[in-house]
Structure formats: structure tokens, C-alpha cells
Amino acid sequence: MPANYLPVLIFLIIAAALAALMLGLGTGLGRYFARFHADRDKRSPYECGFEAFEDTRMRFDVRYYLVAILFIVFDLEIAFLFPWAVALRKIGLFGLIAMAVFLAILTVGFIYEWKKGALEWD
To answer: Using an 8 Å Cβ cutoff, are 70 and 113 in contact?
Structure first.
């Protein structure tokens, strides 16, 4: 039985050796073989050709996150609707009612966000 796993063990050893070789060439030895060495200008942050004039760690408006969460919710809704539509004949009336309840909950959440003004950018 352990002899059956010998090809897998050989594959893992070769993969680990290749990964270590690539990491070694990319980080340690790569700087010796590079045509151009990094200088101060190459290591500086690049933002449209000029220095940053504002802190990049500024706070975002909460509405940005609300819209992002809303997008994720409706993206997941679509991810649930496709398999449901394919299996609708097999799951029958119970599946139809379950999906109607699911869509009703999402619709109530969407209306709540709409009424709270999360979709308005003023």
C-alpha cells in the first residue's frame, strides 16, 4: 500500500525543490543577475508621475462600503439563482417557495438600503 504513494511523494519533493529554486533565484541570486539594479527612483512610490499630495490612508465614506456590500449580496443572489433554475424541476414547489422567501428577504433589504439613502452619492 505505501508503494502506491511513492509517485505522489516524488512529485511533492520535486515540486518543493522547484519552488525553493525559483524563490532563491528570484530573491537572493536575482539581484546579481539583473541587468539594472534598483535605485532610489525605482523604489519610490509612483502615483501618476508626481509625489502623493495627500495621505493614502484616508478614510472612506461609509456609503462606499454599503454599496460594496450591496453588490456582494446581489452577486451571491445570482450565484444561488443559477443552480436553482437548473434544478427547479427536481425540487418542485418547495424549491419555488424557498426561493421566493429568499428573494423576498433580499428585496426587503434592498428597499431598506434604498430608503436610508445608501445608493445616493451627494
So the answer is: yes
Phi-psi region of 117 (alpha: psi -120 to 50; beta: other; left: phi over 0): left
Q: In whole angstroms, give the CA distance from residue 41 to residue 44.
A: 5
Lowest-confidence pick of 56-60, 88-92, 97-101, 111-115? 56-60
Both 29 and 70 in a single domain? no
Residues 109 and 73 both lie in one domain: yes
Cβ contact 99:84 at 8 Å: yes
Its domain, for residue 34, covers 2-43
> Do 119 and 67 form a contact (C-beta atoms < 8 A)?
yes
User: For the chain, what is the domain count?
Assistant: 2
Could you read off the pLDDT of 49-88 as tens digits, one per residue?
A: 666 666 667 777 777 777 788 888 888 888 888 888 899 8
Predicted TM-score (pTM) above 0.90: no
The residue type at 72: I
**Residue 19 within a domain:** yes
